[in-house]
Write a structure and sequence with these properties.
By secondary structure, the protein is of the alpha/beta class. It is built from eleven helices and eleven strands. Helix content is 31%, strand content 21%. The radius of gyration is 18 Å and the shape is globular.
Length: 282
Amino acid sequence: MNVVERLSVKSGILLAAHRGIWKNAPENSISAIEAAIEQGVEIVEIDAQLCQSGELVVIHDEMLDRTTSETGPVASFTADQLRKVCLREGAGGEKALVTDEHIPMLKEVLECVKGRIIVNIDAKRAEQLPAIVDFVEQLGAQADVIVKAVIDPFNPQLPDCLKDKPDIVFMPLLRSRKSRLVEDLQRLSELAPSCIELSFADIDGREAIDFDELLGAELLLEKMKARIWTNTLNCVSHPDFSDSKGLGDPDSVWGQLIRFGVSIIQTDESAFLKAYLDERFA
């Protein structure tokens, strides 16, 4: 099955593990990805960027300092050098212990996930998306991958690098305008997306949109056959819909998002959220 079929065949709410499950493993590591697979989440989100020698490596920051035993820009190291760099535990930081696990290459990750879990590759630099798309195609990993990019709601278009690659699933990231969600989604429907990452902030990032607007868009989304992906990550979510708040009152966060029509939730608390969903939909 391709990604669209895998998304559609699964009913209910899908979970996306942010940078893998990194509570007991380094973020963006093979072990964090394996933990997500073992836990049974449907999607794992990773970050990829080019290093000096032109290979794609899986790491979030442009600098090595936070998550590894090394310092300096990722772009100044070759792949051979990076393979010798060790990852720090969890989300990293100078106090986090250095593990014996190394920074993975994107090739390693895609070989690891093949047929086991969908992987959302976040291009940390927009100009490197074409390199990621080409690599996914060269490796024949289209059936496992979702890529994404920010879309202009006034003029939604596929990135040029995807226009002749229908086998690679593209998820537009929509920063909608307040009170214009239906209008923006109607324009976006021309791309026939299977999933849409919706940022609950207006196009300028200043004011949260009304979640109730999603209810008004319900029929349109059903017609589009598109899933809405939302983040509840503490670092980027709407303050009323964060992982931290969800841990204390899951129904007011994740339950409310589900009532609004969200069907893919990216979280750093996948174990807790999965338990909540299993109980709610038992």
